Amino acid sequence: MSAIDTLPPLREVIATHQLSARKSLGQNFLLDLNLTAKIARQAGDLSDCDVLEIGPGPGGLTRGLLAEGARRILAIEKDPRCLPALSEIAEAYPGRLKVINGDALEIDPLAYLTPPIRIAANLPYNVGTELLVRWLTPPDWPPFWQSLTLMFQREVAERIVARPGSKAYGRLAILAQWRAEARIVLSLPPEAFTPPPKVSSAVVHLTALPEPRYPANAAILSRVVAAAFNQRRKMLRAALKGLAPDIEDRLTAAGIAPTERAEQVSLEAFCALARELDR
After folding, report:
1. Which residue segments constitute the domains of the chain, with CATH numbers given?
2. Count of CB atoms situated within 10 Å of the CB of 62
3. Is 246 annotated for ligand binding?
4. Is 30 annotated in some ligand binding site?
């Protein structure tokens, strides 16, 4: 395995700092620096961007992002055991890496970042979906980020890019595809990680659209989609009856058969229904 910088191999770093992955923190470490560099490349040209990284662990992806030319990285790490290893990376790349020890769900990264901003992370499994939903549903659009390059369990990645008619299609697909271009760019087997998880993983790249794909009130669309998929086995006239007393007429006006189920309805049609309910 070729080196991407002058720092030690990750196995050596983990052994030196006694960094056994903790299940309680959703940790699975990627040790192949060639692989972390490959993931970093999926984020595109980073030379004029600040990068937000969540859960860097021993810093494999961090080193990949820096080696690929990221202007500056803000890494938020909850596990204090990882800080010495990350400090060594910061010393090797002077002025380009800031590490904050804390919970990514509670920290405002914008105080430390200068646009343009991209997000790249091997997200901890236990907070990955929640962070993604937050990034996709800010009060204003476009968001603070240009793109997201994120690793998830393969099942979650497939839910993000799913199309109508598939079992994976649901709220996450609507949220992601309404405001972003989403695609799976890399697949990783369990044995790529230490310890190996029970499932495969995948890297998803999302590029923020300048404006949503179809006009709709974000709050109403979110409410419609949540109600529809919370009872996805029911026909929409039943699943959505709590949203309006004349829901069948609203569905028909939006071009949706009241007898359809949520997984059959396109993003465009959901947006049409949200506009109809907003009238």
Report:
1. 10-208 (3.40.50.150), 218-278 (1.10.8.100)
2. 29
3. no
4. yes
